[in-house]
Design brief:
It is a multi-pass membrane protein. It holds the Pfam family BPD_transp_2. By secondary structure, this protein is an all-alpha fold. It is built from 14 helices and two strands, in the order αααααααββααααααα. The longest helix is centred in the first third of the chain and has 30 residues, at about 10-40. The chain starts with 8 loop residues before the first helix and ends with a helix.
Length: about 350
């Protein structure tokens, strides 16, 4: 007597959906893991925000978010300039001193011409451009290493700031000067608007123009760029000029905020700017980095500063934490690059 084999359809049917879903879930998990590896600082940013939201009720308020944005504005300008310089394989140590020299210049001009605020802004930017031009000439034409050239100009600009004020701050600036950093347009502070415009212009410049391609090319391989017919010297010169000009504008914003200019204004700002660029994934060897990465690094640092202030963490411990973050970011970036090259 032939007995029909029992049907296995009933047994297999419930198991089929998991078998079909398994590979899909595996691919999704792998995609998430790869994204996390490629964008580790985004995860760090999210974790930092979640931590401060948990630790402080004030952190997530609209007023505090505005405080972070306003504090980030002057740093954003010098970080954008630093991005260009680092993409070419250089570094600009002079921007902190340029901020001071430019602020002192703007203060002197506005005291003599209180009705011409635009003249003070122009004078400050021109001071920054002049310092950047000297650095750029030394690097591009004389072959001076960027570290040495900008270190020298850092000292020159710092000395100039003290000379302009005879070693003392410049106070008693007209109220109109304060309007530069404290005016709101459609409810948004003017420095924040300047920062957003700076982001937009730099993103377009680096991703949609031949100038951006030249900057990446020069930083990636200067010799090949010369062979290809690119004017490497002109590109190198230009990035330092832009960096200096943006630092000059940052000096105006900072001095306008406190309605005063003093020779030590901007001291150490160059380190935070470099940190923002490096944390954002740029290579100090040049040729690799993005404006979006710099934006991420900038706001990670500013968020960290703000959150630690809210938690009343001493300033010296804040420096330790930021230093560890910079080292960890660079180490993580090196690990990601090695993993991609396998």
């Amino acid at each position: 007597m032939n007995v029909a084999a029992p049907s296995t359809a009933g047994k297999n049917s419930p198991a089929q959906p998991p078998e079909r879903r398994g590979p899909a879930l595996g691919r999704a998990g792998e995609a998430v893991r790869e994204w996390a590896i490629r964008n580790p600082m985004v995860l760090v940013m999210v974790l930092v925000i979640l931590y401060f939201l948990y630790m402080s009720d004030r952190f997530g308020t609209v007023g505090n978010l505005q405080t972070i944005a306003i504090a980030a504005a002057p740093f954003a300008l010098i970080a954008l300039g630093q991005t260009l310089v680092i993409l070419t394989g250089g570094i600009d140590l002079s921007v902190g001193s340029v901020i001071a020299a430019s602020a002192m210049t703007a203060a002197l001009v506005v005291k003599d011409h209180p009705e011409r605020m635009w003249l003070a802004v122009l004078a400050a930017v021109l001071v920054g451009v002049a310092v950047g031009a000297v650095s750029g000439f030394a690097v591009s034409r004389l072959g001076v290493p960027p570290f040495v050239a900008t270190l020298g100009m850092m000292t020159v600009a710092s000395g100039l700031a003290y000379v302009l004020g005879n070693g003392a701050p410049i106070n008693g600036l007209p109220p109109g000067y304060s309007a530069i950093a404290n005016t709101k347009v459609f409810g948004i502070d003017l420095p924040v608007i300047v920062m957003i415009l700076g982001f937009a212009i730099m993103i377009v410049l680096m991703s949609r123009t031949t100038y951006g391609l030249r900057v990446y090319a020069v930083g990636g391989n200067p010799l090949a760029s010369r062979i290809a017919g690119l004017n490497v010297n002109r590109t190198l010169f230009s990035v330092y000029v832009i960096s200096g000009g943006l630092a000059g504008l940052s000096g105006v914003i900072l001095s306008s905020r406190v309605i005063s200019a003093f020779p030590s204004l901007g001291a150490g700002y160059e380190l935070d700017a470099i940190a923002a660029v490096v944390i954002g994934g740029a290579s100090l060897m040049g040729g690799r980095g993005t404006v979006w990465g710099t934006i991420l690094g900038l706001f990670l640092i500013q968020t960290l500063n703000n959150g630690l202030d809210l938690l009343i963490v001493p300033s010296y411990w804040q420096k330790v934490i930021k230093g560890v973050l910079i080292i960890a970011a660079v180490a993580l970036d090196v690990w990601v690059v090695r993993r991609r090259s396998r």
